[in-house]
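Lecture notes, unit on protein representations.

Consider one protein chain, 175 amino acids long.
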Amino acid sequence: MAVEEPRYTVLVSDPPFEVRRYAAFTVAQTQIQGDFDAASRSGFRRIASYIFGDNLQAGLGAQRKISMTAPVTVVPEDQGWRVHFVMPSAESVQTLPQPLNPQIQLRPVPEHETVAVRFSGFTTQASIQQQTERLRAWAKARQLKLSPTAQIARYDDPFTLPWNRRNEILIDLMP
């Protein structure tokens, strides 16, 4: 079953690295405390609950399921982690049902450019650090100015064999 992903155009391709221009999209996000793995699990469950119907659709007074998309993205923050799901492209902050859980926020993300590196396996602290350093070195060699924050994007369910997993480190380009 195909899962929708955010739309982007590849501006530079140098496998496994890319520079991408993402179209605007909307995310459902939550802030989580704890280590990476615990935050990933808790954040995923919280947002999954929202898309599976823990919400209220304005005008209908009813709950509504929202299609699953990929990736699930985890971003380090000062007080923990921000976990977000990209919402289906047909949705916006105005059309999405309101979360019943006040710890979930809906946020528009404007069009932006990002550098990316794709890798397989588990997203361990070591693999995340290694891939982030590789991506930053690649971007620096091309004189690209990057945001200080790297995002960890995971595209597969936890039952996917490690060598078949698609993971990415994404870092926004500075204007």
